[in-house]
Amino acid sequence: LCILLFLRMSTQDDITVTAEDQQMINKFARLHQNFVSLTDEIKSLVNDVQNLNEAADEIMLLGDDDSIPLKLGTSFVHFTPESAGERLESMKNESEENSTEKTKEKEVIEVEMNRLKATLYSKFGDRINLEDGDD
């Protein structure tokens, strides 16, 4: 995903791009990058929560005598169904909290991006495009 930032200058309406304008364009680009990154992280965290819920459901189907290997880092550690369930619940809560934090960060970035967009579009009109483009 790339963002298209460009100015189309016409001979009739010469608009000067000031250093401040360029700084706003650069700031918008950085914010957009962070926004896209946070969106991806949130999707990953939501997927993690779903996977952890499915794993917890599977654990409930096992007997109490079964040993459950859980991957922690690069190693597998064997847990009882009860302790595995507790561990999965802890991991799920952590992922949900991270997702909530990332969502709040994303909202703050979106507000700032919208402010910059309004400012830049008011000056440059259709000569600038701050919309998403696909790679």
TrEMBL record:
GO biological process terms on file: protein folding
Region ranges (Disordered): 83-105
UniProt KW keywords: Chaperone, Coiled coil
Cellular component terms (Gene Ontology): cytoplasm; prefoldin complex
Comp. bias (Basic and acidic residues): 84-105
Pfam families hit by this protein: Prefoldin_2
InterPro entries xrefs: PFD_beta-like, PFDN4, Prefoldin
A single MF term (Gene Ontology): unfolded protein binding
UniProt superkingdom: Eukaryota
Stretches of the chain forming a coiled coil according to its record: 35-62
Keyword Secreted set for record: no
Family per record: Belongs to the prefoldin subunit beta family.
Subunit structure, as described in the record: Heterohexamer of two PFD-alpha type and four PFD-beta type subunits.
Function: Binds specifically to cytosolic chaperonin (c-CPN) and transfers target proteins to it. Binds to nascent polypeptide chain and promotes folding in an environment in which there are many competing pathways for nonnative proteins.
Name under which the protein is recorded: Prefoldin subunit 4
Species name: Pristionchus mayeri
Classification of source organism: Eukaryota, Metazoa, Ecdysozoa, Nematoda, Chromadorea
